[in-house]
Amino acid sequence: MMEIQMLDHWVRLSVRLLFDILWVSYEDDTGTHRELPSHADSPGADYSATSSTLLPWPAGLPPYPIYVPQDLETLLQQAVASLPSFRPGPHAIGSVPLPIFVEGPAELPHHPWATLVEQLPQIAPYLPRLQTVYLTPKKPIARPAFRLPLRVLAVGGRCDAALEYMKSADWYANDPVVKTHGLQFETVEPQQMAKALRAEMREVVMIEDTEVADLLKAASRLPQPVLTRPRLVIVLSTGVSQPSTARLNLPPGMALLWIKDGGLSAVESFIKEFLYNLIHNYPLHEALKAAAQSVKVFSPSELQLFANPQSNHYLRLSDALTQLQQETLTLNQTVARGNLEAFFRRMGKDVSQKTRTIVAEALEEREAIQQAATVTREINIEFGQETTSLVPLAYAEALVSKARASQQKIRARLSPLMNSTAFLDAVEKHQARRVDVALERLIPEAMTYTAVAPKRRLVKGARYRLRVHIGLPSEDSLMIGETPPLDPLLPEPEGDKGHTLDVVVFEKDFTLLSPRVQNLQLPRLRGSEPVYFELVAPQRDTAELRIGIYHRNHLLQSFLLEAQVGADEWIDSPSPQVTVRLNFSRTARFTNLPSLTPRALSIGVNQNPATNEHAFMLKRDSDTLLFPVTEKIIADQQETFRKLLREATTDAQGNPRFPTYPAAGTPPSEEFNQVIRELADLGGALHHALFVRADKKMQKALREIAAITDDIIQIVRHDPNFAYPWPVIYDFQLPTKIAGAPAPPVCLGGVDAAAAAANANAQHCSHGPKDKVYCLKGFWGLRHQVEQLLALGDNLEDAVVKVERNPQAGICLAVGEKDEHTQKMTDELRNKLGAAVFELKQQEDLLDRLWKPAERPAILVTLGHLETNQIAGEPEGPRIVIQPKQQWLQAQEITNRQIADGDWEQQPNTLILLMACGSAATDIATLNDLSTAFTSTRAAAIVGTECVVFSRLVARFAEEVTLDLWNGMPLGQAVKQFNRRLTGAGNPLAFVFNYLGAADLQVAL
Length: 1005
Ligand SMILES: [Zn+2]
What we know:
By secondary structure, this protein is an alpha/beta fold. It folds into four domains: about 10-135, no CATH class; about 150-315, NAD(P)-binding Rossmann-like Domain (Rossmann fold); about 320-595, Immunoglobulin-like; about 800-1005, Rossmann fold, CATH 3.40.50. It contains 29 helices and 41 strands. Strands 1, 2, 3, 4, 5, 6, 7, 8, 9, 10, 11, 12 and 13 form a 13-stranded mixed β-sheet that branches. Strands 33, 34, 35, 36, 37, 38, 39 and 40 form an eight-stranded mixed β-sheet that branches. The longest helix has 29 residues, at about 390-420. The two termini are about 45 Å apart. The structure holds zinc ion.
């Protein structure tokens, strides 16, 4: 059930008695507010005294001065100007009135403060454009959006009589469909009232003031108040009780309209007009003002509305329309559409003839659902007239209730299959459900939405509603790319909860009016209900936004919406103007979700070529952060990072600065401490940059990340070339820098060199995010696992979470750099793993082997010199030497092979260690290109280096990590453990190693 976003304008004026002054504070829906002063002697520049003569003064109250915000009149003028000055339709009153919610001081709850406020000189001139409403004192509650029928309960004969004009209208009196599905009237005697309320929810209850106290008591005692309480109470008053008493006792979630009973015909006329106005989709305050204006016999104080900005909209017919559309879309997704024959053909032997017959017979019932869907889709509502609003809506509701009955029948007929695991598995295996995105434009005058056709532009500044669901493509789909088969979606098995996904809209160029994260319930078999996001199109010619589908913070799929935007929607062009395209996917059919484990945080990085900007998109549970970063800032930070690593690699003589195998028990050098301090300073600055841009909720989420250990942080590069030093982000506090003081010590995270050599799981220190310290645990890459994933287009594939072993080829070593260190690695791996390890043969072409599934290894270790010099007889450009003078690894050759021979469609999807060594700082883009090329062919992961390092270090890394991987350790953990061992022993170069692929990727045992 969706909650409708409140977007109508309102103003709230609160009268307070403070320091012997009456203050009128201001607040509105845009967030503008004028606060009360905190000291008697400083009323503040914001407030000034206003004339209080002639005001309806509360009895017994001394003539206190009244202070109002200095700019009250300007604020009101602006608020009024933001509302349409014309409302079409025969019942309209010209302009849309601004609701002003008034509350009085707690000391004087019974005084009619709205009457006083209306007479203020700053407000009186605007009265024709305003409607004052008494603010209900209870906290608002969120109620499900209104849905037809509108049920009206009259209590007692007087109220029954007051509805007579309404009940005699031709469109109502002679139409049984409207009477059942559109508008229902019922009358009970006061003694039966409480029982009637318990029996069924009534949206509107009419009652005399003698009974109102009983009604409010009964309403406050109803079970499940959000579902069962009346939304509006209309009180006919003969002056027996005070309206303010009713207002103060009104239970949350209800509004109340108080009418001075000045004779039956006046009340009848007024009620008729008021109810008609609700049918014409007015909020309560506007329905009241328009009715009062056409009936003309009531003075303003004889009609009092008690509501809040939420309950003012509890009875909108546009909500009823949206509910109807949403239900038919969902019903239509389930069983109503789809090509059964084609689906059976694809299922082949997985579905028996008997089962086919049951399904086919069950689906014969789907006609009613299709009819309801078609009628609702084509419904053309104009709220200005009951015959074009309530009446057609009632007819559509009648069809929907038939459709619901059909769905029940289908469910019943399918029930013999719903306990069959084989059948459910077969459907799940073959059924194609996709994310579908549509955009609907708000027609403000009509309060309805119409679908945006792909060949129309968006309109600058116009309001839209983005609709996202998973299932079959809708008629309004904006998706481009491969068209999925139209499979019938069946009802879900009884008791099957399915998965809760998060849909996140990173609005980028748009303005987002609704929350950025919405939950989407995905059942096992059928389509999901849609979720909606309210947007405003920007004042620019092109616009994009990104949609992410997450499961437990693991990004499943990501889509890019791109739109042309203009002054109007008309454009003469054969090409689509609004498109949505998949660009990242870890699931083909949403059936592998259990294998995609939770992430602590997911960060997407998006590129915007038009502005040379990147956007960081963070998501943890319901908290998100979107912020742009310029290319330059990113490049500078990445360069600073690499410079630190390069300087940590070699000394002035070109020798390694830090030992690869520090002797056990040797304390880390001061040089090491200095490098760690510099890395932490950089990482701390990066963390601050994220933190200060986050809102309070995201800041809380980042604080949580800082306090937890051993979790996985996911980075998705929507631009594959984008590199950023995520593992170096440092989220503990840093020591305050004191001039002249000795440099602060560096904590190894509690793992000293000896312990690290002996036991990688040695105890940690007790440092946490609040300690001002240089501690290895403060780095994301050492405390957590940082996985990076590449977005490479629109392939719908399940993520590889396990690399299968190939009996013919276990671990392939392609070592072009022959020295004592690489020899040691080869010997050690051979000793420990035996026949699983083999070397690439002389003359053997590595790519030939990789493109033969029977010979493709589970793990490939390429370790070679990164050559950048032009050498006669060798290919041009940077290359990794695999066999000196014979074979080199280059990205373009991998891509050529992929173009010629296709992707690796069968296991093993090799896990590649791409170990480039050398002594000179070299263009790292080469390595990035190689990683991208291998990822594109479906290698499960590429483990690489940030810069070129000595062969002894990459050999140690390759040896230890390969051993752990082969023994079943997940990739992220193997890399993290190595990095902890290395840094714990006093070598800071752990930050050199990174990987593209899932942290929990494993080699099958
Ligand atoms: Zn520590």
